[in-house]
Write a structure and sequence with these properties.
This protein is mainly beta and 251 residues long. It is 4% helix and 51% strand. The N terminus is likely disordered.
Length: 251
């Protein structure tokens, strides 16, 4: 029985969260349950002096088949997240951190601006409890952990540390800004990117879809229609989604 749930956690584990409320990204289209971004793409890097925020979108399967036996997934609960950098925290949507089988939701990680003394890698350990029913009848629960994700804190050199071989989104620069700011996005292939700017309540204020070539690309975001304040920008390639915080200054 433990092997059955361990198999399911390959699809589910990695859920990590943050301060505030994330909003499920309906622009992500996929036919396979799991976590977005996956552990190969990893989490966006944090940068010294810049507050951190990222969302993880995921779908919990309603059921799975293992060796011909059906397993119904009732829920997955995040019990705790260990290894977060000092000043970082997590939260869930829904707030009780219980995600029902067959639903799509998101989680969020946030952190105060890291200092130079925090530069380094922070492997995360996520403690999970999965509840389900073998053959749709026999109730089972299993406690397990996932350690596939790491938060990396980089020195603030003005140059984003991202690889052109995976989908990654850097922190916008300058930040705070007024007028225009630029975001470096790495794309493993030529693809369409969906850009969304929201306020902290989740109201969508700007949207744009652009075609980018393979490699590192600079994308501009304008504050022309934005009042001074804090906003969230989300960039998605239809498979993975990255969200970061930006600040529009008053002058």
């Amino acid at each position: 029985m433990k092997k059955i749930y361990t198999l399911l956690l390959v699809l589910l584990a990695g859920a990590v969260t943050g301060f505030g409320q994330c909003v499920p990204d309906t622009s992500i289209t996929h036919n396979v349950t799991g976590i977005y971004p996956d552990s190969t793409a990893g989490l966006p890097h944090a940068t010294v002096g810049i507050p951190y925020l990222t969302d993880m979108q995921f779908c919990v399967p309603a059921n799975a088949v293992y060796l011909g036996q059906n397993v119904v997934i009732d829920s997955m609960r995040i019990v705790s997240v260990l290894g977060l950098p000092p000043g970082f925290t997590y939260s869930c949507t829904p707030t009780n951190c219980i995600f029902l089988g067959g639903t799509t939701s998101c989680i969020q990680i946030t952190g105060s601006a890291p200092t130079s003394g925090m530069i380094g890698n922070y492997p995360l350990t996520v403690n999970l409890k999965v509840s389900g029913r073998l053959l749709g009848i026999f109730a089972q629960q299993i406690d397990t952990t996932n350690s596939n994700y790491t938060i990396v804190i980089d020195e603030n050199t003005g140059l984003p540390s991202i690889s052109p071989t995976t989908f990654q989104v850097a922190q916008n620069k300058p930040n705070p800004f007024r007028g225009k700011t630029e975001v470096m996005v790495s794309s493993p292939t030529s693809e369409m990117l969906h850009i969304k700017v929201c306020d902290l309540l989740g109201n969508v204020l700007q949207t744009e879809t652009i075609q980018v070539p393979k490699g590192n690309n600079n994308i501009s975001i304008s504050s022309e229609d934005l009042s001074p304040g804090i906003y969230l920008y989300t960039i998605s390639n239809g498979r993975s989604s990255k969200t970061r915080r930006m600040i529009v200054s008053g002058n």
